[in-house]
Amino acid sequence: MSTSVTVVADRLTRRFGRFTAVDNVSFSVAAGEIFGFLGSNGAGKTTTIRMLCGLLAPTSGSATVLGLDPVRQTAELKRRIGYMSQRFSLYTDLTVAENLAFWGAAYRLPPARQRERSRWALAMAGLEDRRNALVAGLPLGFRQRLALAAALLHEPAVVFLDEPTSGVDPEARRRFFDLIEALAGSGTTVFVTTHAMDEAERCHRVALMHAGQLLALDTVPAITGAFPPGTLLEIRGPAPASAMACLERLSGVRDAALFGEAVHVVVDHPGRRDEVAASLAAAGFGDVRITAIPPSLEDAFIRTIRLAGGGPGQHDDASEAGR
Prior knowledge:
single chain, alpha/beta, 6-stranded mixed beta sheet
């Protein structure tokens, strides 16, 4: 990953009437970096991407992408970046090869270059044997790989991917992120929003967004390192919701959240474990298992939102945490 900067957001703000979708957000992204944007629905991720791509003007603040102003130099910027939106953007009544030919022409690639890049795209996406297949008949994972290939035909230095694997099965998601890592390894900057924690953990850095605000930005180890060793406890036993309510009243408990059938509890120091066990036993929760666990990005995500006053500490499925 290079130290040169390709994307800069400086106090970016976007309002729709009285609603603030993005609130004073600042960050920078290095060349060859996989930069992950994680956040719940309405967090402001897509609005931020649209401002960076020149599709939406900010209410205030500014941005540069590859040294270009997305507001004043939109046409030139679009020729130098790739963009894959949440909505599938290819033509389902055309074949794989026909879609690539269409986008090659849209990017004004010379015919010889277009053929060369189409061959590269088919190989990169693993679609050589499906070049003549109608897109309408492709599984969703193949469609998403084709959409990525089309966004990369003109060799952009920066590619923006807005929840590119939404609705795709886990194996297809893994293969898609293998492609992303290969892109970054070749020097392409990848700016990606995701709702999957395992994908976010493969990013070089992750930005946690909530209610239009940037709450945290760092590497995954740095973000999860906010928990001192031994201060995150997993509690399994009957009636986890009732156990969580009991634990939230203890003075040494900093946070508690439901994770499926378990409760994750943040305590102020490791010595609280015996006190937690005694309090649960006194409240009638006899058959419980308490284990000190290493924090995940999911734990950090929920804790960060709780500290920002962003809602109850309940979570039932890891794949939903960042939606």
